[in-house]
Design brief:
The chain is of the alpha+beta class. The protein is built from three helices and five strands, in the order H-E-E-H-E-H-E-E. Helix content is 30%, strand content 25%. Helix 2 packs across helix 3.
Length: 155
């Protein structure tokens, strides 16, 4: 598996890994696990677009929510590359946690988080298939529509 080549073949560019904005680190490696802190849908410009802010089901709708989750996953991968030097050092994606800023009654949470899950499979193939948490929440930092955290088995 050459995840770096897959990323390139998909025409994807990773953003600069966002810095921690509070008392935490972006990623922690322990043994053969790399745990990446929750990432927001920052674009290449380092900002969250208006399409990716607000509550799903009220301000943001499924397609834009899936794109927000995909951007979160790209930021996760940026943190992985920063921590390991290369995505090729990932053996598998173990788990993703997806948090969706949901309006009352919004139930398509899993469909939104698929934006992140689908990206992991596209980049890592079968090694990108993972366990997952997808949950609706009342608020997220910076009014982001989605936040994604992840855990990887690494070489």
């Amino acid at each position: 598996m050459n995840a770096e080549k897959r990323l390139q073949d998909l025409g994807l560019v990773l953003p600069s890994p966002p810095l921690a904005v509070a008392n935490y680190v972006p990623a922690v490696r322990t043994g053969h696990l790399l745990v990446v802190s929750g990432q927001l849908p920052f674009g290449l410009d380092g900002a969250i677009s208006g399409d990716h802010k607000g509550k799903l089901g009220r301000d943001v709708f499924n397609e834009a929510g899936q794109e927000a989750a995909r951007l979160c996953a790209l930021n996760v991968l940026a943190q992985v590359r920063a921590a390991l030097g290369s995505l090729n050092d990932v053996k598998r994606c173990v788990r993703i946690g997806g948090y969706v800023n949901s309006s009352p009654g919004f139930t398509a949470i899993s469909a939104v988080v698929n934006g992140a899950s689908d990206l992991m499979v596209a980049v890592f193939g079968d090694a990108g298939r993972h366990a997952r948490l997808a949950v609706g929440v009342a608020e997220l930092p910076l009014d982001a529509a989605v936040e994604v955290e992840a855990m990887f088995e690494v070489k």
